[in-house]
DNA sequence: ATAATTGCAAATTTTTTGCAGGTTC
DNA sequence: GAACCTGCAAAAAATTTGCAATTAT
């Protein structure tokens, strides 16, 4: 969990408005969260914050490398703070998403001839531990 | 490229309508294709085929394991025929998607403790060979 | 013959846009 | 003070639904 959303925004050329810090906080706390879920959360504290503002800022923050889209099979995309390379474990029972390091061996084994790789998106779908124990 | 969409449908408990075989053919030929693109293609031959029918069938064919959604950052989802495990090379310049085998070493290196893995979705974003040569 | 499927139009949901007033730096 | 942001309402785009007519098996 990050503390300083103001600095995060400003160091990426975005003005630090209350709306933006609230959205970032919501994303950071949840880990991975959709537009609707952000709206539900954020409107507790800021009832006037509009969905349009969330959409505009989601786009802007992606362009400015503050957040990243996480598209998921069968669901609306979620968003996360930009962070180091990692993969997602997506539980098909409870829907939670966990981050995991991508082991160096995996990165090596994914290298492809004749393709200039920029980023790897790895999502593993299955059943998380707590859902297995039920 | 598959020849027999009728058998494919019937062996998955779906009636073989012209609409469905047309949609499947369009997906198969394109490799990866969005709902809109399917609509554009299919309406050449079947001008009355409606978007509603495409949506209904995309859902149905996913449920019956005939096709698979491919969610992509910053774009509408595409769909592909269900096939053996593979990963996607997504060109950020021209947008094309290529299939590639996932090497066994990569599969091993992706195994995670305490997670019952059902399927791995791997998308590599970068620049394809022909876009590098320009 | 039966149950399922289609196409249309309408409804719903999701996302985008324009602009007046307010805010950040 | 200038440039940028927000919130609203309205528009546009995407997806779903209900139902009468048609089609697959």
Please, could you describe this protein's structure?
- The structure is a homodimer of 134-residue chains.
- Helix content of chain A is 40%, strand content 22%.
- Chain A is an alpha+beta fold.
- Chain A has two domains: 5-79, Orthogonal Bundle (Arc Repressor Mutant, subunit A), CATH 1.10.10.10; 84-132, 2-Layer Sandwich (Dna Ligase, domain 1).
- Chain A has a three-stranded mixed sheet.
- The model of chain A has no long low-confidence stretch (mean pLDDT 96).
- Chain A binds chain B through residues 69, 71-74, 77, 87, 89, 92, 100, 102-103, 105-106, 108-110, 112, 114-129, 132, and chain B through 62, 68-69, 71-74, 77, 87, 89, 92, 100, 102-103, 105-106, 108-110, 112, 114-129, 132.
- The structure holds a DNA duplex (25 and 25 nucleotides).
Spatial strand sequence of the major β-sheet of chain A: 4-3-5
CATH architectural label of the largest domain in chain A:
Orthogonal Bundle
> Could you give me the name of the CATH homologous superfamily of the largest domain in chain A?
Winged helix-like DNA-binding domain superfamily/Winged helix DNA-binding domain
Derived from helix and strand composition plus strand pairing, the structural class of chain A reads alpha+beta
What is the class of the largest domain in chain A in the CATH system? Mainly Alpha
N to C succession of SSEs of chain A? HHHHEEEEHEH
Round the mean pLDDT of chain A to the nearest integer and report it: 96
Which fold does the CATH topology of the largest domain in chain A refer to?
A: Arc Repressor Mutant, subunit A
Total beta-strand segments of chain A: 5
Low-confidence stretches of chain A: none
Estimate the helix proportion of chain A, in percent.
Answer: 25-40%
Biggest pleated sheet of chain A: 3 strands, mixed
Give the domain tally of chain A.
2
For the CA atoms, what is the radius of gyration of chain A? 17 Å
Oligomer: homodimer
Intertermini distance of chain A: 29 Å
Number of helices of chain A: 6
Shape of chain A: globular
Q: Largest interface, counted with CB-CB under 8 A?
A: A-B, 35 and 37 residues
Percent range for β-strand residues of chain A: 15-25%
């Amino acid at each position: 969990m990050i503390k300083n959303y103001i600095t995060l925004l400003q160091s990426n050329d975005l003005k630090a408005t209350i709306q933006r810090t609230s959205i970032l906080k919501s994303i950071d706390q949840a880990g991975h969260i959709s537009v609707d879920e952000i709206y539900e959360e954020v409107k507790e504290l800021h009832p006037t914050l509009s969905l349009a503002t969330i959409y505009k800022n989601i786009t802007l923050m992606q362009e400015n490398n503050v957040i990243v889209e996480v598209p998921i099979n069968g669901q609306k995309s979620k968003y996360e703070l930009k962070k180091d390379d990692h993969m997602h474990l997506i539980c098909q029972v409870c829907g939670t998403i966990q981050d995991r390091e991508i082991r160096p061996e995996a990165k090596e084994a994914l290298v492809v001839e004749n393709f200039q790789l920029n980023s790897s998106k790895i999502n593993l779908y299955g059943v998380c531990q707590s859902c297995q124990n039920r």
